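User: Continuing from earlier, I have the next pair ready.

Assistant: Great, send them over.

User: Here they are, in order.

Assistant: Folding the first of the pair now:
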Amino acid sequence: IDAVKNAELECSRGNGRSCLDAADAHEHARGIDRDPERARMLTGLGVQQFAIRCMDRVPAGCLELAKLHKQGRGVAEDAVAANALVDRATMLCRSRPTAPGCPGEQP
């Protein structure tokens, strides 16, 4: 339960990955009661966080959002949108090769 609570706290602080982790826990009853409605809400928050990061020119946000479009998780399954997001991330990495999500990312 503590791991789920921590993930939800990090989600509320804008960490999209934590939103998805918490959503998984609620969807699959991992350490907490199954709650599909809460899982959908947390997935939606994760999608929003990745979209914001992508709009803020963070390649990692675009790549995570592309994965969600490929899976149809929290958004419509859309290969065209996924490919466009990967293209955007690639373009952003050309101008900032050390940005999060780029091959030359700094630790």
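And the other member of the pair:
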Amino acid sequence: ILDVPNQVECTLAMDEITKTGKAFNINFFSISPQDLEDIADSACQRLPVAIEAESEYKDLGLFIGALEDLKESVVTIRNFKMVRDEAILPRIRSGLVIDLYLKRQP
């Protein structure tokens, strides 16, 4: 469970991810924050976020590249998958787990 200061930081980071995705025509089906993880000997905590989305291949690549430029948090990709679905071509379904690194609150 997130404490209040981290809840605010988390909300800002999630909003930024959503806005970035929309700018690249990413259709999010779900964005699900997981449990906050402590990182030993670090000033940060890690928040895994599971994302299910649909987009064109190129747009997904641009979105993933844009995650590097987020201002509210540092982001890494933990897990990534793409699924081709004939019914939605040229769009693809994707699932990824990203890690948001948030400043540890005192």
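Worth noting for the second one:
The longest helix spans residues 4-23. The CA atoms of residues 75 and 100 lie 5 Å apart.
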